[in-house]
Write a structure and sequence with these properties.
Blueprint: H1 3-48, E1 55-56, E2 73-81, E3 87-91, E4 95-98, E5 103-112, E6 118-127, H2 129-132, E7 135-140, E8 146-148, E9 153-162, E10 172-181
């Protein structure tokens, strides 16, 4: 073998190794980026209020002296269940008039329509989106997974406050929950 062919062969191996390294690194980087998107999206939603996610506060943190009794806001309650969850889910009261800054309680009722235990997780959404920045819960069934026995009916409370600094042009807020089946499918 000549020196030129050995040099060419070494150069081709270096190029092939670089290409292989690039081909391996691309999926690894794509996976890492996809994995990082979830916490980044959560932070983005929390900062901007996008996706209508609500806040969580301790009842002791709420200043009851900041209740705005000069105005009322209508809060509408909506309930949905995702596919595959055999539950009946509904608000006990479909709407209420509230004063921003005051703590209120609403109830949702859920009934299992299956002959075996089932587990669901409620995901909240608030609209209009700017209102979600002012909607805070002190207690909510959505904080934990809910397990229902066959045929069980349960009333579940939500305690909430809409901050007194809610923009004046927002006169109606909708709180919607969707329950999703979170049981693992057995093969």
């Amino acid at each position: 073998m000549s020196e030129n062919s050995v040099a060419n062969n070494n150069q081709q191996n270096k190029v092939s190794n670089k290409q292989l390294l690039k081909l391996v690194m691309i999926p690894v980087l794509m996976f890492g980026f996809g994995f990082a998107l979830v916490p980044l999206y959560d932070v983005f939603c929390e900062v901007t209020g996008l996706n209508g996610k609500t806040g969580r506060v301790e009842a002791s943190e709420i200043n009851q002296k900041q209740v705005d009794t000069s105005r009322t806001v209508k809060v509408k309650f909506i309930a949905n269940t995702g596919n595959g969850l055999p539950w009946r889910f509904e608000p006990v009261v479909t709407d209420m008039e509230i004063h921003p800054g005051e703590i209120y309680e609403a109830m949702y009722r859920v009934t299992s329509r299956t002959d075996k235990p089932s587990v669901g997780q409620a995901v909240p959404s608030v609209s209009p989106v700017p209102a979600s920045l002012h909607f805070n819960k002190t207690e909510c069934f959505c904080f934990l997974n809910q397990e229902l026995a066959p045929g069980e009916t349960r009333d579940m409370p939500i305690r909430f406050v809409i901050n007194h600094d809610l923009p004046e042009d927002i006169v109606e807020v909708t709180l919607s929950y969707t329950f999703f089946n979170i049981e693992q499918k057995q093969g």
